[in-house]
Amino acid sequence: MSGPAIFVVEDEADIASVLVDYLRAAGYTPQHFADGELALQAALAQPPALVLLDLMLPGRDGLSVLRALRERGSLPVVMLTARVEEVDRLLGLELGADDYICKPFSPREVVARVQAVLRRSGGQAPRSGLQLDAGQGRAMLQGARLDLTRKEFGLLAVLAARPGRIFSRAQLLDLVYPEALDANQRALDSHVKNLRRKLGAVDPGHDWIRSVYGVGFSFEER
Predict the structure, then answer these.
(1) Number of domains in the chain
(2) How far is residue 221's CA from residue 21's CA, in Å, rounded to a whole number?
(3) Which CATH number characterizes residue 21's domain?
């Protein structure tokens, strides 16, 4: 079964390709648009779960697209931009952007922000009692805060985005720690062990992270 649709509206092909790959790996159904006007018409005809929207676009710029979307509803929008001036940030937020990510960015961060916005908007309400706030790097389980390291948070975000899916160790290393030179399977196993301990301290009656011998791990909702 396909996951929630995400529009990636980005005219730089290399950036768009990476985002599409990471979103697909996280369980979403991404669709790429390089032109703002085409993306707007598609979103109005068949709204996706969320739009990743670049600021500088051919055909119609991102703020114009955002303004048109907001005139017709409250579709979640995350802005992408290389322009970091505060006036651009404020203008985008005043028009109703749900989040704002500046280039250069980590594609893992973008996926985590997408997950957070969808949770807040109700587009992907968690059934497990787990809440992840990528902006703050904060995780809550059944109302209790989990004291996680940055790497533990990233690992949990990837696993929880696809409950029941088995990720190999190699996939998790690539998705969670692609830039870490010291990342290896032994370190990954250590992070999984710490996550299990912290999740179990809140809810000891459930095995949240399942090991599949010789394969990898999966996140198990109740």
Answers:
(1) 2
(2) 25
(3) 3.40.50.2300
Q: Which residue in 4, 61, 6, 8 sits closest to 33, CA to CA? A: 8
Same domain as 135, residue 57: no
Is there a cis peptide before residue 30, judged by omega within 30 degrees of 0?
no
pLDDT digits (tens, 9 = 90+) for 4-52: 899 999 999 999 999 999 999 888 999 999 999 999 999 998 999 999 9
For 102, the 3-state DSSP assignment is strand
Show the domain range for 104: 5-120
| DSSP strand pairing (216-219 vs 167-168) | antiparallel
Question: Is there a contact between 35 and 60 (Cβ–Cβ < 8 Å)?
Answer: yes
Q: Which long-range contacts (CB under 8 A, 24 or more apart) does 136-144 make?
A: 141/199, 141/202, 141/203, 142/202, 142/203, 144/202
Tokens of 185: 């399977």
Final residue of a domain: which of 69, 102, 120?
A: 120
Domain-terminating residue out of 102, 120, 138 = 120
Name the band, by pLDDT with cuts 50, 70 and 90, for residue 169: confident
Q: How far is CA 42 from CA 1, 36, 38, 67, 169, in A?
A: 22, 10, 6, 15, 37
